[in-house]
Design a protein that fits this description.
Elements (H helix, E strand, L loop, with lengths): L1 E5 L3 H13 L3 E5 L2 H9 L6 E5 L7 H11 L6 E7 L6 H6 L4 E5 L3 H33 L9 H18 L3 E8 L2 H8 L1 H18 L5 E4 L4 E7 L3 H17 L2 E3 L2 E3 L3 E7 L7 H17 L5 E3 L8 H9 L3
Parallel strand pairs: 1-2, 1-3, 3-4, 4-5, 11-12
Antiparallel strand pairs: 6-8, 6-11, 7-8, 9-10
Helix pairs in contact: 7-8, 8-9
The chain binds magnesium ion.
């Protein structure tokens, strides 16, 4: 673990540094508050900092305050160094955001214990962040395929539509449904069905640009969001998906299973379009693709949504 020592007194600084090295810590030092602040803002922030209270430039308390104002993650554990019988008010230091303090002259064992306490807090916080991120991923992803789940892909579509309106760019939406998927489950079992869904998702992901989004919309239904894609680009992508999914049968423990997919596409703009309208248009086109014999791409027309202002005016006129 890397620790920052900010201390203007060279002797004191070297003594702490020597101790920390002996205990296996990596050390970065600062000779005044401003230098310490630079280090605390760098990309690789030390997880623990020992800050002298009295320093030229920014003092230790001000550093604590600024670090806490930024409220960055991961958390930096802050230990203030004070002088015995000094004028420093500990309450001020702790209120500014220090986690602990040490009075000079301190003994080495005391410093070592305080550092251990700090490490425990940092480790706990790391576990919490990991757990939170895992929960977040679970809440937004489909467990089987790893694609975005239903709620998240709709949220992404709404976000991209808002961006598209702002930037005057179209957004493509493709709804895809594996053909005769029920038969896969019925004939080969659910394990094979799951393998087909996973492999289909992997193939689709291999076609997406980094800023495209792919979600599992329902059972064997997928929704793709393609920012800044007009009808032509969207049609190309839909055709690529259709062609790649149908090219080679999916290998499953139950044998090789041929797969085809039907796709419905729709593109937003010009004019304001909401996520629901775009999905409906893509869904209708998908329905058409199914009824025309499956394993094909169809396009749907999008109704432009009336803005609230339009609706209000027309309401007033009794239209
Ligand atoms: Mg000092």
């Amino acid at each position: 673990m890397r620790i920052l020592i900010a201390e203007d007194d060279a002797v004191s600084r070297r003594i702490i540094e020597a101790h920390l090295h002996k205990w296996g810590y990596q050390v970065v030092t600062a000779r005044d508050g401003n230098e310490a602040w630079q280090i605390l803002q760098s990309a690789e922030v030390p997880r623990l900092a020992i800050l002298d209270w009295m320093m030229p430039g920014m003092d230790g308390v001000e550093l604590c305050r600024k670090v806490r104002e930024e409220a960055k993650e991961p958390y930096t554990y802050l230990i203030l160094l004070t002088t015995l019988n000094g004028t420093e008010d500990l309450v001020t230091g702790m209120n500014a955001g220090a986690d602990d303090y040490l009075t000079k002259p301190y003994n080495a064992n005391e410093l070592r214990c305080r550092l251990r306490a700090g490490r425990r807090i940092i480790d706990l916080q790391e576990e919490l962040i990991t757990a939170r991120e895992a929960l977040r991923a679970k809440a937004s992803h489909d467990q089987l395929t790893g694609l975005w789940n239903h709620e998240e892909i709709l949220r992404i579509l709404a976000r991209e539509l808002a961006r598209g309106i702002r930037e005057g760019t179209p957004v493509g939406a493709i709804m895809a449904d594996l053909d005769h998927f029920k038969a896969v489950n019925d004939d080969h079992g659910h394990q094979a069905g799951d393998a087909v869904l996973r492999e289909s998702a992997d193939r689709i992901l291999s076609l997406m640009r980094p800023y495209d989004a792919a979600g599992r919309y329902g059972g064997e239904e997928f929704l793709f969001v393609l920012p800044d894609c007009n009808e032509e680009n969207t049609a190309v992508m839909a055709e690529r998906i259709r062609s790649l999914l149908g090219r080679d049968p999916v290998k499953t423990p139950q044998g090789r299973i041929p797969v085809t997919v039907s796709l419905g596409a729709a593109v937003s703009g010009p004019g304001e379009v909401d996520a629901g309208s775009l999905v409906r248009a893509a869904d209708q086109a998908l329905y058409l693709a199914k009824s025309k014999g499956r394993n094909r791409v169809e396009f749907g027309g999008v109704e432009t949504v009336r803005t609230h202002a339009d609706a209000a005016i027309q309401g007033e006129r009794g239209l």
